[in-house]
Design goal:
Blueprint (H helix, E strand, L loop, with lengths): L1 H26 L3 H14 L4 H12 L6 H8 L5 H14 L4 H9 L4 H14 L5 H6 L6 H14 L5 H10 L3 H14 L2 H12 L3 H15 L5 H5 L2
Helix pairs in contact: 2-3, 3-5, 4-5, 5-6, 5-7, 6-7, 7-9, 9-11, 10-11, 10-12, 11-12, 11-13, 12-13
Length: 231
């Protein structure tokens, strides 16, 4: 009888072994996932900027919780292309910390990174960025002013209308002035349409033509506030 009991116990233990192994397998993360994220981290620290760019491309598709911290780290990469792309990826992430991350980085950013951060704020679409973007319309750098004008149009906020009108009338660069006029059209509100009519009626022939073209475009969009007074 004792021998039979031992035999039955061995059979029970052998039967349970596969179930225990399956349970353990479920608790262990798939090796591919761990390896993939570790490869990205390693790639972002590689001495070859091409390897870091590849790692950033891979990270852009990731939904890993560490993604934001890794993108933030890339904002200080030695490669300007990486810094710019990281900024845009932060904006596109729509993460709850994206606005603060981009805004806090703007103050001490170099020109290339600043343009990327501004693009990121435009991609994020948070209207809190209007104030800081409007401030860059007085920058000494022409590309910064142009980018600020463009991003204010993307945000579509009335808060940017006055600054855009001023830029359209006073900026010394033609491309910046034109970008300001076009952004007023993208905002498309009643206030923006009033500003465009001011430009249309002004003494600057180019501004009048640009504003007139934008007003006609607004008028074709039914239901908008700007369309009601665009003509």
């Amino acid at each position: 009888i004792p021998t039979m009991a031992k035999l039955l116990l061995v059979i029970v233990l052998l039967s349970a072994a596969p179930l225990c192994a399956a349970a353990a397998a479920k608790k262990t993360p798939p090796p591919a996932v761990k390896t993939g994220m570790e490869a990205v981290k390693k790639g972002l620290k590689d001495g070859d900027h091409k390897k870091r760019r590849e790692a950033l491309d891979t990270l852009s598709e990731s939904k890993d919780p560490e993604k934001m911290n890794l993108l933030k780290g890339s904002l200080i990469d030695s490669d300007p292309a990486i810094r710019e792309k990281a900024a845009r990826l932060i904006g596109r992430s729509k993460d709850k910390l994206a606005f603060e991350t981009l805004s806090d980085s703007l103050a001490g950013a170099d020109k290339e990174t600043r343009l990327g951060l501004m693009e990121g704020l435009g991609d994020l679409g948070d209207k809190r960025a209007v104030k800081s973007l409007a401030g860059f319309l007085t920058s000494e750098d022409r590309n910064t002013r142009w980018k600020a004008a463009e991003m204010l149009g993307r945000l579509r906020a009335d808060g940017g209308v006055d600054a855009l009108l001023k830029a359209a009338m006073e900026d010394k660069d033609e491309f910046v002035r034109q970008a300001a006029v076009e952004s007023l059209g993208k905002i498309g509100t009643k206030k923006a349409a009033v500003a465009l009519n001011v430009l249309k009626a002004g003494g600057d022939e180019k501004l009048a033509v640009w504003a007139g073209n934008v007003l006609r475009a607004i008028k074709k969009v039914p239901g908008t506030l700007g369309a009601k007074i665009a003509g």
